[in-house]
Amino acid sequence: MSNAWIDPGLKAAASTPIAPPPLDGLVIRMGVLDYTVRVERDVRSSDDAKLYGEIRYGAGTIRVDADITPAFQAVVLWHELVHGLLEQAGQEQSEATCNSIAFGVVQLLRDNPNLAALTVATLTPKDNHGTE
Description:
By secondary structure, this protein is α+β, with helices and mostly antiparallel strands. 33% of the residues lie in helices and 21% in strands.
């Protein structure tokens, strides 16, 4: 089973001033599963549709198109992560919902570069509520 973001002809998101780390080979833990990010040229679905990205639940991989800007790769990665989160939660997934959330998260992180670090800093090893 997979969810794919089919190329709707959208333009790439605005570039970020910070050089992104390489995505290829990045391992992302989502719930109890680990997903390895693969940056590949000419990402295609099983029916040969051109894709920007795709999450493969059974294989534990997220594929992202190599031929898009790094900023747009970040949006695509978040789009696929939203699919994964919704899948694990047993929720409906539409491409429009995943697009909206992905663009929103990337915009928030770009406009508030300390937001991710602040969020992580509030979590303790004891729990996920920031309390001791």
